[in-house]
Sequence to fold (97 residues):
Amino acid sequence: MVPSPQSGGAPAFATVALGRDNAGMWNEPYLETCCRSALHRLALSGMAGRPAGLKDGACLARLAGIGLAECQSDGRYAITEAGSLRHASDVLKRPVQ
Fold:
């Protein structure tokens, strides 16, 4: 965490990005360790998905907010195609094609 001058030095999360676009600009939001772990559990859960209300619920909601997961009609979270690609690159360390 980084102290925020606007809040009188109270901690605030810094925004960091991982990927670069063709112009060399960063374009992917940084995933905290807890969210990378949640993405991995989501990938392992397959078609069944992950139920809401677990300890990683905040991370699942964040993943859904950036398009790496989606909340289905039954309330369970499922990985998206973008989430699968990000899982391959960030968690499995495989080159994305």
Notes: The first helix runs from residue 33 to 45. The chain has a mean pLDDT of 80.
